[in-house]
Amino acid sequence: MTFRFLLPLLALFATACATVPQRAAEAPRPGFVIAANPLAAKAGMDVLQRGGSAADAAVAVQAALSLVEPQSSGMGGGAFMTYHDGRTRRTTVYDGREVAPAGATPTMFIGADGKPLPFPTAVLSGRATGVPGAVRMLEEAQRRHGALRWSELFEGTAVLAEQGFVISPRLGRMLGGNYPQLTAPDVVKYFSKPDGTRLKAGDRLSNPVYARFLRRLARGGANVLYRGETAARIVERVRQGPLASSMTMADLARYRSVRREPLCRAWQRYQACVPPPPSSGVATLQLLALLDRTDIASRGPGDPQAWYQFAEASRLMYADRDRYVADPAFIDVPVEGLLASDYVAERARLIGPRAGPPPEAGTPRGVIVTTGRDRTQEPVGTSHFIVGDSNGNVVSMTTTVESIFGSGRMVDGFFLNNQMTDFNFSPFDEKGLPAANAVTAGKRPRSSMTPLILLNGDGSFAGAFGSPGGSAILAYVGKTMVGSVLWKLPVQQAIELPNLVARGGSFGGEVDKFPAGVVEGLKARGITLRPGQGEDSGVHGLMVRDGGRLDGGFDPRREGVVLVDERRTRVRR
Question: Where are the domains of the chain?
Fold first, then answer.
């Protein structure tokens, strides 16, 4: 039987001990799914209980999220997956980030007046959509790590799309918001009742067009999206005005996901592994390293000095991230320099007794080209999920269509991304220096997504974390790891800690959630917290505690759920 639990309440189970050889398979454990919507989590659990692997279940979760959480991710978007193999203890990154079409130009988001386009104008344009990558990436990961046939992973969601699902409170809130996409014709049509009024939470929504697409995808594989009739419809839709895209059928056909080595660094008693650029995983590792050079571990959530240190370390991290991180196929990203011990120590010394002006980026070793100040806009969106199977395989995956409902354009029952607006709109800054994250044909936009996996010293799985939230992802994940590891809180409590996002001269936070005295203590240190955008986290986390106990949870700010397979269904091989 499958149950909904907060993971701190789960039963104990055995894991491999430290004396097991490094390449020995990890001990059996219950399969689990942590996702932002109960229907998507159930789709993944159904696959696990049929003998599917974590990679199989990830495909099913994404297919369902595209239906029930279309404001955040979908088949028309992109993703990063960090995958841990329980048998080989090898961790691999699958990069399904979108790609700029071959006809994209550095000035495609510059208006006739020579200034960057307003964001609402850009996001609703045909040019906003990059070549989607999530489906191709999932196909590659499932081909390498799956136990079931690809064709077996979609029918449950296809039936749900036909029969309809009840619109959740969060989706209902998005439909009642003030987002530019809500004016897009496809959004208006999809979410309208026969009388022309908009659907709301509690209403039933069906999507038979998506059901037909999923069944074709099940039969034909990822090529169903990248070639043929669906690809033709994507090209036709994005080539419609305003500001038509240059995307072609050839752009879709040539898309390839990238299998990358994870970026891993020692942190506390673990190895923390994240995707390398164009993901911002390097920034997550830098933030953790900066915090290690403070005494935050000896403090706690009620201490304003701890939150001050977190804020100042965040600002230093963001300054470096914004300046240097971009697609490594086009920009030399100084990854090793950003994480070098002496450089991190030098940056940490800038954390003084009181917050000052926005910090400038440093100059780490390996900087070849001087890049300009970044002005990339990253709206809050995206979804994260974690899946584990009984063989010890684990997926930590962050997936997105970028803004709410992506570009607002729909094809075959799913929304297309607006990921091109994750580039810097101007190719140069105010001083004429080139922007590292400028638009270039064939380039992947920088991403804040940082699906993380923790490993023990013997290479066995120790934990997984990730979140949606645009650029705030780095702060959300960092805060949760501070709470879970440094302050030794249960993961659920660490997720529930108030969010604080400090970037440049902006200090956002859940002002009413901090313990008494923290907000005032921060103000005395030069930080005035203000509520606002950047607080809609969706953190999911899990750790294997001493004795093999699973400890994890979901973000109550969204609609998270944890499902656990108490039957410990064995993965088919």
Answer: 2-260+382-433+441-565
pLDDT at 10 over 60: no
Length of the chain: 573
- Sorted by sequence, the CB contacts under 8 Å of residue 145 that are 6+ apart come out as 53, 54, 55, 83, 85, 393
CATH of 2-260+382-433+441-565 among 3.60.20.40, 3.40.50.2020, 3.40.50.720, 1.10.10.10: 3.60.20.40
Contacts of residue 242, Cβ cutoff 8 Å, sequence gap at least 6: 121, 124, 125, 126
Query: Does the pLDDT of residue 208 top 90, yes or no?
Result: yes
Taking CA atoms, 204 is separated from 3, 162, 163, in Å, by 25, 11, 9
Nearest in space to 73 (alpha carbons), one of 360, 406, 370, 336: 406
Query: What are the tokens at 300?
Result: 């706690």
Classify residue 51 as exposed, middle or buried by CB count within 10 Å of its CB (0-12, 13-18, 19+).
middle
**Number of neighbours of residue 14 by Cβ within 10 angstroms:** 11
Burial of 115: CB neighbours in 10 Å, binned 0-12, 13-18, 19+? exposed
Residues assigned a catalytic role = 382
In this predicted structure, what is the pLDDT of residue 452? Answer: 98
Across 448-465, average pLDDT: 97
- pTM more than 0.90: yes
393, 44 in Cβ contact below 8 A? no
In angstroms, the CA 380 to CA 573 distance is 39
Across all residues in the chain, what is the average pLDDT? 92
Distance CA 136, CA 62 (A): 12
Residues 6+ apart with CB under 8 A from 289: 265, 267, 339, 341, 344
Residue 204 amino acid letter: R
Task: Check if the beta carbon of residue 72 is closer than 8 Å to that of residue 383.
Answer: yes
Tokens 């709109």, residue located? 425
Residue 334 has pLDDT above 70, yes or no: yes
Cβ–Cβ under 8 Å, residues 274 and 92? no
Which pLDDT value is given to residue 435? 84
Question: pLDDT tens-digit profile of 164-200?
Answer: 999 999 999 999 999 999 999 999 999 999 999 999 9
Take residue 454 and report the two structure tokens written for it. Answer: 């923790």
Cα-based distances in Å from 300 to 308, 486, 541: 12, 9, 19
